[in-house]
Amino acid sequence: MAGLMEMLPNAASLAQVAGGILATMLAYGVALRLGKLTRQHPLANPILIAALLLIAGLALARLPVRGYMSSVEPLRWLLGPATVAFGLPIYRQRALIISAGKALIGAILIGSLAGIVSAVGLAKLLDLSPVTIRALSAKSITSPFAIAVMERLGGPAELAAGLVIVTGLLGAILLPVLLKRERERDPESYALALGLSAHIVGSQHVARIAPQALSIASLALTLAGLATTLLLPLLWPWIAG
Amino acid sequence: MFPRFLHSVRAYLPGLAVLAVLTLAGWWASQPLGLPGPVIGLAAYVALLLAFPALERSTQAAAEGLLKLLGLLITPAAVGLALHADTLRSEVGRLALVVVLSTVATGVATMLAYKGLRKWLG
Prior knowledge:
Chain A has about 240 residues and is mostly helical. Chain A has helices at about 1-5, 15-35, 45-60, 65-70, 75-85, 85-90, 95-125, 130-135, 145-155, 155-180, 180-185, 185-210, 215-240. The N and C termini of chain A lie far apart (about 45 Å).
């Protein structure tokens, strides 16, 4: 037990760790129920709702956010293996990767590049702060990848994770309206666009609206995570410059 | 209850061990390769699955379980957004504009790229 205590950065007590994790599970459980009640409406995003509940709870109890963050550090250790676990769906979809082939991989690379360049370019044009620009560069990949890449490059992991969620919500609300005609005409392209730009929230939308194209959306979301992770270190001098 | 507990330990443990070792290996290789550790671990996991297909059965319970937990694992990071409240408050309008325009541009660019490449490559 003493060993575990030393591993926790701010020496949070075991009771704090248990309390933090239990509160997170409780908030997430409530958020999941809300998501089910609204049939997974994009705005009822469980991560967003759970985070808002926890922030409100911490404010009411006058507890510091930083203290909460260090108490739930064990959850963060699991994020690494959970990101590695994405290898399983990629492996299972190897037939789809091979059959859709070059066009799919090419589109995912172009889309990932468009995601980084449009966000960072616009942010620089509008003179946003350097820390926000760094976080925006990872906004169109799913949170575990965004957190991993920010930790590696020294960017703001929390801000990036938050923007990822907001991007998913907005993308899953706006793109279905804009691309409505494509939904019937070309469900594959539709699913690819949503999976790449609005990642998990976009894929959930595809699962409801065009389930036959769900595998394309989830493939787009994992491969875009990989592509962006490979592109960001190369573009980092421009992003952070 | 006890035998069931033992059964789920047997189902999850090998997979968790493999994923933990791959995470550590990725973390270790992250410095020289200049890439995030978990992503290196992911690539190694896919390579291992391709080389040893039997690994799918022994690791799937753990991998699927962790993927289902992802939302819960990310929630603390989203709470950390509150630490950036001041930055966010001062640029919220411009930030919203960037996110909306860039997200739409990304989706449309991806779709057009896929349509174009599919036609071009046959």
